[in-house]
Amino acid sequence: xxxxxxxxxxxxxxxxxxxxxxxxxxxxxxxxxxxxxxxxxxxxxxxxxxxxxxxxxxxxxxxxxxxxxxxxxxxxxxxxxxxxxxxxxxxxxxxxxxxxxxxxxxxxxxxxxxxxxxxxxxxxxx
Length: 126
Description:
This protein is an all-alpha fold. It is 61% helix and 0% strand.
């Protein structure tokens, strides 16, 4: 298995990840109005910025998602799918970095949303 190397890798990865989110009973209602084809370039751009050092992403991620009113259970499911999809498709430094960064994102989002600290680092993948 290879590591995440290109924007094409990121696109395949995010599509596989969102396929899972869009059918899960916990997360699907939060994404029911998502226009995935329109959103996908932003996802790819964000992860290319984070993992491939590509310039151009400047959006405030938190502000773009606050309207979803996410709770801990949404992040639990989201993180499980993110980690599982990453592990199914990639192995390497960037894949590990992606899982670390998404854990930090979830922790930060939950703190901003609830004022509480949730440690998502010990999350199980299944």
